[in-house]
Structure formats: C-alpha cells, structure tokens
Automatic annotation (TrEMBL):
The keyword Nuclease is annotated on this UniProt entry: yes
Protein name in UniProt: Endoribonuclease YbeY
Alphabetical UniProt keywords: Cytoplasm, Endonuclease, Hydrolase, Metal-binding, Nuclease, Ribosome biogenesis, rRNA processing, Zinc
Species assigned in the record: Duganella qianjiadongensis
Binding positions (Zn(2+)): H116, H120, H126
Enzyme Commission (EC) number: 3.1.-.-
Cofactor: Zn(2+)
Family: Belongs to the endoribonuclease YbeY family.
Length: 153
C-alpha cells in the first residue's frame, strides 16, 4: 500500500445482521479501491431507527436513507499527507430493500454504497448533472475493477 493511500479503518456493526455477509476484509478492499489519498474512516452499519434519526438530525430528512457520509475535514485546506476523516453510515434495512428492488446482490449494492460514501468523504458530490456524471463514472470504473456490474445500468 502506498503512503498516498494509507488507511485507518474501523468497521462497526451496530446492526449485526450483515456482519457475516460483509466482513471487514471485504469492506477494506472496497474502501481501499476508492481512496485517492490517506484516510481515517469509520464504516458503521445501523438499523432503520438509527438511520432515520441521523438523517433527521443532520439533513432535516425524516426517513432512513441508504448511506450518509460525515466528512470531518471537508472544505478545509490540509496537507497532502493529512488523512481524510469521515464516518460513513449504512442503513441495513434500506440496503437490503434497495438490493432486492434493484435485483442486485447485497454484496454488489453494499460495495457500490461504500465506494459512493468514500468518494463523498474525499469531496466528490452529485449536486448537479456534471458532478453526478463524474462521480457515477468513477464509481462504475472502480466497481468494474473489483468485478462488479455497472450499478447504473
């Protein structure tokens, strides 16, 4: 691993339902694939109640969403070797529901959402069409390199 992609990763299973299906080494591989700089990240799996509470408190949206990214040094100027710091929250209930609706495996959908969250942590966004196209292109490319289908196909 290059110094550029140095990673400190914590994986928390507050909701333990996916702990066996999505073990830490698999998650680490997905995170590492999406890193363009050093990072200190926490990936946390939560149930619908915690997901809804966090989304309501921090985004004023009263529902559980699939992934929330809390990037702690977003918009700050920091040294090239200083790590990106973020918490990425995945809601198990929403993840399972969306995977079924989209006819994807749980693993495929989780890989996509984790990569999506890691990109958000590094400053990528999808607020306009141009940003969305760039972010989706990166996600598709990274997922293909990991052996997963285009999530937007």
């Amino acid at each position: 691993m290059s110094a550029k992609n140095k990673l400190s990763l914590s994986v928390q299973y507050a909701d333990t339902r996916l702990q066996e299906a999505l073990p830490r080494p698999k998650i680490r591989r997905w995170v590492q694939a999406a890193l363009f700089a050093p990072a200190e990240l926490t990936i946390r799996f939560v149930d619908a109640a915690e997901g809804r509470s966090l989304n309501r408190e921090y985004r004023d949206k009263d529902y559980a969403t699939n992934v929330l990214t809390f990037a702690y040094n977003e918009g700050e100027e920091f040294a090239e070797d200083e790590p990106t710091r973020a918490d990425i929250i995945l809601c198990t209930d929403v993840l399972e529901k969306e995977a079924a609706e989209q006819k994807k495996t749980l693993e495929e959908h989780a890989a996509h959402l984790i990569i999506h969250g890691v990109l958000h942590a590094q400053g990528y966004d999808h607020l306009d069409d141009e940003e969305a196209a760039e972010m989706e292109g990166i996600e598709t490319e990274l997922l293909a390199a990991l052996g997963y289908a285009d999530p937007y196909a």
